[in-house]
Fold this protein.
Amino acid sequence: MVDDAVNERDDTYTAVVLRRLLRQALEDDPELRTELAALLPAPTEVTITASGERSIAAQNIGTAITGDGHTPPRP
């Protein structure tokens, strides 16, 4: 089945097939699931708070303009 996914010319289909195969493998093999979980980074909790007039908050932000009379940057 993996060969079918690799030989497929449609990337969307390939990704769907591989996800299904991975999900099935993880459901069928608890030890594999444990080993894979150990390889992945631990999830971290992020709290972002903005308070006050015109406040903004973001974990990642490109350009942020607050206040009056600004012209947005051109792409």
